Amino acid sequence: MKKLMLAVALLFIAESIRANVLWSSTGNTPPRHRNITLENGAPCGVGTPVTPTLMNSGKDIQLEWEEFIPQNGYFEIYFSPANDANWVLLKKIDNIVSAEDLNKTFIIHKANIQLPDVTCEACSLQIIQTVTGTVDAKYFSCADIQITGPADKTQIDPSSNQCPE
Question: Is position 155 within any domain?
């Protein structure tokens, strides 16, 4: 019975701590998968692309990701227009861990970016966490997106004879 309880406990721990950084499942860019992805699994680790999240070209969006083991370093957010290739850096964010953060189970980070002014059916957003200090490591997470049409343009009814506000 003790062996069974130990096995269940280890399975629970392994399931709950799968990666150091992941796109948030509750954000607008759910992760492709929830597996640990280290540098040798770049750019997106093991996992098949999922149904992409639809977004508008050129739109300002807020991204959200989870950090499971608070560590100093930085995050980089990249965009790929197709098939996880030709990555373009969109934003770099320093990650300085406070003493308070060390006591947390995980930290939710948020950042605003502007999507590129392109359309694509098989685009990806990638977040890379580079850990610096006592351990140097990189962790990856990807989200599948599809970018269509321009960002929220005001529709004008030509029969109204009114300008949009």
Answer: no
